[in-house]
Structure to design on (1001 residues):
């Protein structure tokens, strides 16, 4: 059986505005329930929305960074449904006239570039949050509602069905996060829910009977990159199995309403068909009469475009050009703006880009990965600044400590937040680089191992390493290994 | 003349000269309320203590002000300080129940003031209470109120009109001096006409809607009800102006409406839209309106017949758009955060359904269903969208008419006030009572209803319609007519009771 996987994503990202979309309430995360609310975001009778202009700016900047066309004229519509977390019983969103449309994102999969279409980016409001006494709203003895989140601005990004594998979907989502973080419009923390993803997936199957498309399944509320990839992998497998087992539906089956909404059970590792919020999926969209249309001049849009920072694609090619980095290194270093900034600033301070890229991609990443999947978040929350890292790397570069000590110091810096100088002093790690200091020790080691010396003289050059090791051991690793090697070679020749 | 029967303008002068105190005025109003409210039922909530406290404050400030010139200036800048005002119960008042005339909100006490409430408080006006209204402003007789109907002071067997029926009746009866109403399809003008008072529906966007319980958001406007045109201008002065909390409010300097009142109507081109004088209009009403037109003509106005050809479609289109908006606006009344919640529902959906089913009246349910249907997928284009196109045509009719004339004159209502129960079971007949006022809301225009005489002992309303933001022209024309014609020789009064009812306020 020959099949193609078709995936499209709907991504929601909370915008980093200080206040909510329609009122002045704070958008801060994690405070006491219902402390960031007012008559407007609670939807009390008589209240009206007033558009937060910063949210429009952020949404448009996201659209620009994703290569979209920006609408000169767009508007807000009401999406209507009843749910306890939705105070007005409608969500103010955008229906047929979104702020941004027709963009594209280039991703690299297995070394190849793939273009993913962006159908639209629109602005809408967040709902509140339910806390259930039981597992879910259905079947709980009671549920509590926290409206702190209600009214926070969101952008919804809808891709074309251009993704061809679960892995591609994950890579796209990571790329999207990189871009949104670069331009500073969203922190995209999936674990806090500021980035959420719904995935639509079905299969185009070709066999001797011709082409057949399986019903589209929409998997809701995927809250980690891993979940996106796992859920899609599971669902693709499930659709394949179902087709193998049942084949095509009988002729005349109405396939127009076969879109299924599913959830993802992380613990069980499987998707499940979800109960619908309402009996019918008719949101009765209509233009919100409380809000005038959003009219953007091209001057305004161009001003915002000019304010965009260097985007990952541009930074990547500049790193290759300017620092002579291999493609892979440039891609890895620019996948996060914080990492890119760490690299670039440290390179400037040390004057050694190659060394810095090796250290960042090796040791720094190894430490950060201990703090979770999100390198950028880990980096922002640790004490490794460009100045601190440069200080350490200059010790290594100037051979005042050796590379192994360097790694040890970095780990200590990461753990304690102390400066490299202090750790090196405390641990007495500074290398012994004085010829006179080492000459005596070298002579002793040579004298103590006549057999090895014999081997070396007989051409077994590799045995020098053993003697270097003995000197290192005697100095507790503080000797400059290059110098030791040089001294041994000298005295044996 | 009793204090409660005086106009705000007269009272303002008396208060400024300290011939009366605000406390005396407020007490006079409550005396009238004590005498008549039991029968009329203009109010849902009365705030006797709050009103008296506010009146004392105004008096204290005025006493302080009398000593220095700064205070005198302050008094001039607040001409309505100390004037009692009734507030329609769909305007949010902090700490005072705001029911929107619905059982659903019977116990809802808002934590905030509507912008117009902030304005009238800042002006030193005294809120007497919250007036009865059709439930969520959906109705034309105040009979759909979730609590009780209000009666017309001119004939208590009749309705006062609606939905601002409580406000209009209170002003007519001396249970308030001024009142705030809201007008979506005629809800200020129609009860004003039925109760023999003046009511003005401002240009959409002139007065903030922030804090007005929404019915049809693209039509709703807050406006003044008063006993004469001058009082109407004074209250409009307080209400009008840009509000950053209402994105549909107009950014523009507010003119001096009182100053606009002088002058005559010589050369004013007055249009009579033929569609508003059709056989469906009661002959007595038509005669009264044409007599008023004659007064304008005698004053030098040029009378011209004009046509608004899409008038016959306006009502149908309105009853698609307004219910569509209301079906959305009223969805928030789900019993979760405030308002009525049905007990014992096994799940949320049942709770939503029962809370709404048990607390909304039949007219509200009818309009929610109409609107839900009109917005449903598959019907949206045929109903909502088509109605919006009709709206554009109605608007264009007015544009064309205003190319030929400056102001339009029509009856406010096809008949005088009808009897309680007469139309409540015939929704279409009830909707038809707003046939002359609805097109004005469709076109976002300002319009005023002024009394133009009595027919069979009941007041008739003359409606003047002007182009957008021409409230000054409306007020000037209405004022001229009112001065020239003096259309009402008396105001309604309660039947004298055998024994005066003791009132604690009066004896205090």
């Amino acid at each position: 059986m020959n099949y193609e996987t078709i995936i499209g994503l709907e991504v929601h990202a909370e915008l980093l505005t200080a206040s909510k979309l329609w009122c002045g309430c704070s958008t801060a995360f994690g405070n006491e329930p219902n402390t960031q609310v007012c008559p407007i975001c609670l939807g009390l009778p008589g209240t009206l929305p007033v558009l937060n202009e910063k949210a429009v700016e952020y949404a448009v900047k996201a659209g620009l960074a994703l290569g979209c066309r920006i609408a000169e004229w767009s508007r807000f519509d009401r999406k209507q449904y009843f749910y306890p977390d939705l105070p007005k019983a409608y969500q103010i969103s955008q229906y047929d006239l979104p702020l941004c449309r027709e963009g594209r994102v280039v991703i690299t999969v297995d070394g190849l570039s793939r273009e993913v279409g962006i159908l639209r980016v629109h602005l809408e409001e967040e709902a509140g949050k339910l806390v259930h006494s039981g597992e879910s709203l259905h079947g709980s003895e009671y549920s509590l509602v926290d409206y702190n989140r209600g009214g926070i601005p969101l952008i919804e990004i809808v891709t074309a069905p251009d993704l061809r594998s679960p892995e591609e979907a994950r890579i796209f989502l990571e790329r999207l996060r990189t871009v949104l973080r670069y331009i500073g419009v969203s922190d995209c923390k999936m674990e806090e829910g500021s980035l959420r993803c719904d995935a639509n997936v079905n299969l185009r199957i070709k066999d001797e009977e011709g082409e057949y498309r399986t019903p589209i399944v929409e998997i809701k509320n995927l809250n980690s990159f891993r979940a996106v990839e796992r859920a899609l992998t599971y669902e693709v497998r499930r659709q394949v199995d179902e087709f193998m087992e049942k084949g095509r539906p009988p002729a005349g089956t109405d396939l127009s309403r076969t879109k299924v909404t599913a959830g993802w059970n992380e613990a069980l590792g499987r998707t499940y068909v979800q109960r619908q919020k309402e009996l019918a999926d008719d949101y009765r969209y209509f233009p919100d009469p409380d809000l005038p249309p959003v009219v953007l001049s091209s001057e305004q849009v161009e001003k915002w475009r000019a304010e965009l920072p260097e985007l990952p694609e541009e930074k990547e090619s500049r790193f290759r050009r300017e620092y002579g980095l291999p493609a892979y290194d440039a891609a890895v270093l620019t996948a996060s703006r914080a990492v890119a900034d760490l690299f670039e600033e440290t390179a400037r301070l040390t004057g050694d880009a190659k060394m810095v890229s090796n250290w960042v991609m090796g040791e720094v990443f190894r430490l950060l990965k201990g703090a979770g999947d999100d390198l950028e978040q880990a980096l922002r929350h640790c004490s490794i600044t460009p100045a601190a890292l440069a200080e350490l790397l200059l010790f290594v570069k100037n051979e005042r400590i050796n590379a192994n000590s360097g790694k040890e110091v970095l780990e200590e810096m990461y753990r304690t937040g102390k400066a490299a100088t202090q750790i090196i002093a405390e641990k007495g790690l500074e290398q012994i680089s004085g010829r006179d200091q080492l000459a005596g020790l070298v002579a002793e080691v040579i004298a103590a191992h006549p057999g090895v010396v014999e081997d070396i003289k007989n051409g077994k050059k590799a045995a020098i390493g053993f003697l270097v090791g003995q000197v290192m051991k005697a100095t507790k690793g503080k000797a400059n290994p290059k110098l030791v090697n040089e001294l041994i070679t000298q005295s044996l020749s | 003349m009793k204090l409660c029967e005086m106009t705000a303008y007269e009272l303002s002068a008396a208060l400024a000269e300290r011939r009366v105190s605000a406390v005396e005025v407020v007490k006079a109003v409550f005396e009238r309320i004590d005498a008549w409210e039991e029968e009329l039922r203009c109010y849902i909530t009365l705030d006797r203590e709050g009103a008296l406290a506010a009146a004392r404050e105004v008096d204290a400030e005025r006493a302080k002000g009398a000593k220095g010139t700064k205070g005198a200036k302050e008094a001039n800048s607040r001409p309505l300080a100390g004037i009692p005002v009734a507030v329609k119960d769909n305007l949010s008042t902090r700490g005072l129940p705001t029911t929107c005339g619905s059982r659903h909100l019977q116990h809802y006490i808002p934590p905030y003031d509507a912008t117009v409430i902030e304005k009238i408080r800042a002006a030193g006006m005294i809120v007497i209470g919250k007036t009865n209204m059709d439930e969520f402003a959906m109705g034309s007789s105040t009979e759909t109120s979730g609590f009780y109907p209000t009666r017309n002071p001119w004939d208590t067997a009749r309705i006062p009109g609606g939905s601002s029926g409580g406000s209009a009746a209170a002003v007519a009866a001396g249970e308030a001096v001024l009142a705030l109403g809201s007008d979506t399809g005629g809800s200020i003008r129609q009860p004003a006409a039925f109760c023999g008072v003046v009511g003005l529906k401002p240009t959409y966007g002139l007065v903030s809607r922030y804090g007005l319980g929404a019915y049809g958001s693209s039509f709703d406007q807050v406006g003044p009800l008063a006993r004469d045109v001058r009082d109407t201008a004074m209250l409009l002065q307080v209400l009008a102006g840009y509000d950053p909390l209402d994105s549909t409010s107009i950014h523009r300097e507010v003119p001096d409406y009182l100053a606009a009142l002088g002058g005559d109507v010589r050369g004013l081109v007055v249009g009579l839209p033929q569609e508003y004088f059709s056989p469906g209009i009661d002959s007595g009403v038509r005669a009264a309106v044409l007599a008023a037109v004659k007064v304008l003509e005698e004053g030098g106005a040029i009378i011209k017949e004009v046509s608004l050809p899409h008038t016959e479609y306006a009502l149908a289109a309105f009853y698609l758009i307004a219910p569509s908006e209301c079906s959305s606006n009223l969805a928030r009344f789900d019993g979760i955060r405030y308002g009525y919640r049905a007990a014992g529902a096994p799940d949320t959906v049942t709770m939503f359904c029962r809370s709404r089913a048990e607390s909304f009246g039949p007219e509200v349910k009818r309009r929610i269903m109409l609107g839900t249907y009109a917005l449903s997928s598959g019907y949206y284009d045929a109903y909502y969208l088509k109605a919006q196109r009709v709206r554009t045509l109605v608007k264009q009719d007015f544009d064309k008419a205003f190319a030929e004339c400056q102001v339009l004159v029509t009856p406010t209502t096809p008949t005088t006030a009808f009897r309680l129960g007469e139309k409540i079971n015939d929704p279409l007949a009830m909707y038809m009572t707003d046939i002359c006022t609805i097109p004005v809301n469709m076109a976002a225009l300002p319009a005023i209803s002024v009394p133009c005489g009595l027919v069979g002992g009941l007041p008739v309303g003359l409606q003047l319609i002007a182009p957008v933001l021409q409230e000054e022209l409306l007020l000037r024309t209405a004022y001229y007519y009112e001065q020239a014609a003096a259309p009402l020789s008396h105001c309604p009064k309660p039947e004298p009771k055998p024994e005066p009812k003791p009132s604690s306020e009066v004896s205090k």
Summary: The CA atoms of residues 441 and 474 of chain A lie 8 Å apart. Residues 225-246 of chain A form the longest helix (22 residues).
